[in-house]
Every structure is written in C-alpha cells, then in structure tokens.
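My main concern about presentation is that the manuscript never shows what a single data entry looks like. An entry of this sort, consisting of the sequence and the corresponding backbone structure tokens, reads as follows:
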Amino acid sequence: MTTLREWIANFKVEIGILHDVLKIMEVKGQNLTTAENLTVLSFDKIYISNTIELHLKEQKIYGPHKTCQVVMIRDL
C-alpha cells in the first residue's frame, strides 16, 4: 500500500480529454495487425460526492460535481 500511495502521489491527470493518451494510441496502433487493432470502448457515468474539493498542490478548487464520465479502452 505504501508503494501505491507513493506512486499515485506523483501521478498527474488533468480534467478533460487526455490528448497525450490518444496520441500514444494512434502511434502504437500503426504497427498492429487488423486483429490486434480491434478495440472495445466502454463508456459509463459514475456518481461521485457532490462536494467542493481543494487540491493543495495545484491550489485549485474542483466541484461540486455529481457525476463523472469514465471511458475504458480494451483490446480484444
């Protein structure tokens, strides 16, 4: 648990579309066969705490938000 907490403390994800991830997928997908390139996109809306949060490191205020859109990408 300590290792996971240390790792996640340095993991930064901005709110919004992850354009860097889309670029990585594009580059990686160029070298795949048609069968390897088949991908499943799953979309879901999750309910989250409807509170205002202060991110101390970034000095930003987030919220309040009731829901969050989650996208999961898997290959077949």
The chain has a mean pLDDT of 86. Helices lie at 2-9, 19-29, 34-37.
